[in-house]
Amino acid sequence: MRLSRLLLVKQNFPSRRIPDVAGEVTRQLAASPIASRVKPGGRIAIGVGSRGISNLATIVRAVVDYLKSRGLQPHIFPAMGSHGAATAEGQADVLAHYGITETLMGCPIISQLEVVSLGVTSDGIEVFMDKTAYESDGVMLVGRVKWHTDFAGKIESGLFKMMAIGLGKFAGAQRYHTYAYRLGLEHVIRSVGRQVLRSGKILGGLAILEDAYHQTGQITAVTVEEMEQKEEELLALVKSWMGKIPVPELDILILDEIGKNISGAGMDTKVVNRGVHGQYNPWPDTPRIHRIFVRDLSDLSYNNAVGLGMADVVHDRLVRRIDWTPTMINSLTASTPAAIRTPIHFPTDRECLERIWPTVGKFSSEEVTIGWIRNTLELSPILLSENLRPEIENNPLLEILGEPFEIEFDAKGDLVPLLSQAGVGAHS
Hints:
Radius of gyration: 22 Å
Order of helices and strands: EHEHEHHEEHEHHHEEHEHEEHHEHEEHEH
Distance between the termini: 21 Å
Largest sheet: 8 strands, mixed
Shape: globular
Strand content: 15-25%
CATH superfamily of the largest domain: LarA, N-terminal domain
Strand order of the largest sheet: 12-11-10-9-13-14-1-15
Mean pLDDT: 93
CATH class of the largest domain: Alpha Beta
Low-confidence stretches: none
Number of domains: 2
Structural class: alpha/beta
Helix content: 25-40%
């Protein structure tokens, strides 16, 4: 097997990085009426999710500090459905791995799974809320607004989804995904979110937007009155910032890692052009990817291998690391069993590539086009095969850095980590 050499390619996305994230949180909250809706001394529950959001601990701590400065008593609770193996301890551990602990946040963290009913929607969906959040004087949400991995709509992932699947804990997540199988997830998110708003417990939210470099690009305080419309506007904006694989087609995409901290589906389906139900290349205006090779799980995945089933081939090391308890709980709760099917797997990177390249319709391995990224959050720099040079050079947003790399394997038959050699920091 002789593969095309690789080029290190920088994608010149616009940088929207906020230089003072904590300061921006304070400015947004100070300009918003959210905190003034509870009298001094009131108890505020801050819902925080399980995604790997940049500067998450900084943002949450700034929210806590601001609420305290207004004489309020904040506490944090996990708003993450079935994540953390759907246990109170597991969800607290997820927050701790993002630096969200009582010591670092300066307030209590209350993780438990008991919920209260908020009534039913017009579709007959019973709606739930975390009990400790409901018993507080008001609930504030801290979450990222972005595209969802399972569907396309005007509202996808964000504050509304957190109000539904996050605040509803495991009990709500199971029920809502079951209804979503028939009614559609956007419909369920909207209708459940509206029912949560009718409870009067939600004060508002802090919407986080990230640019294509996974940097904090915008922070917006959102009141309950404008939440639905504002989230539509924010989603449209952040979709326009989205980073993509910068060529129209790849035979093989290599990912060093997948994980829940990277994407709800383990890998961003709208980057790799896969569907959680097994569809190949379902997303229009997204590069066609013929085969996906995944090498490992992220260290922050808790060995939850959701997304495994979207790969075509994986390394044995990934299979050995899988903790099937959180993997199955998460996948079955979301009604996506195809997302955890075990692909073919081999003991070395070399064998994975040797076995998969002949399946892409090419007679010579040197003709196979390859992309290699650490994960679907980190798309610049990217390694692209030299046989894509004409397309790369015709794109003014792309810059080739240095000379081509030979694809090398170590004595065990595993890939020499070219991304880390180039200063990107990929796992070996």
